[in-house]
Amino acid sequence: MPYSDIFKDHLANPRNAGELPDANAIAEETNPVCGDRLRLSLRIKDERIEAGRFLAYGCAPTLACGSALAEMLEGSTVEEARALTRQEVIDAIGGLSSRKQHAAALAIEALRKALDEVADR
């Protein structure tokens, strides 16, 4: 399955890449099979995600999924973010082959972990 133009654009122009100095929710997840890592930093205020940033280490799909997820999150409520699915991340980058869908799962796992961190406070 060839990568879509939107996927290629996320690789060439990652959205919201980097650290978020004033983040109040940070999570990092690693895929134990391939070693890909995704770190997600969020600034949440009044149950709304004001900003999201990501750092990705690994395959191109992990970077594209992190970029798409960070873009999707900004402005959303915590409840809307919790409802996001792996498939929505895959759709946001124009699709992924079945053997690369672990990248979207990694992004969603990092999101859930970050949101759980805020909920536990």
Description:
It is a single chain. The chain is α+β, with helices and mostly antiparallel strands and 121 residues long. It has one domain (5-118): Sufe protein. Chain: A. Helix content is 44%, strand content 21%. It contains 5 helices and 3 strands; from the N terminus they run αβββαααα. The protein has helices at 5-12, 60-73, 78-83, 86-92, 102-119; strands at 25-30, 37-45, 48-57. Strands 1-2-3 form a 3-stranded antiparallel β-sheet, covered by helices on one side. A hairpin with a 2-residue loop joins strand 2 and strand 3 (48-57). The longest helix has 18 residues, at 102-119. The radius of gyration is 13 Å and the shape is globular. The mean pLDDT is 94.
Features of this protein?
121 residues; alpha+beta; Sufe protein. Chain: A; three-stranded antiparallel sheet
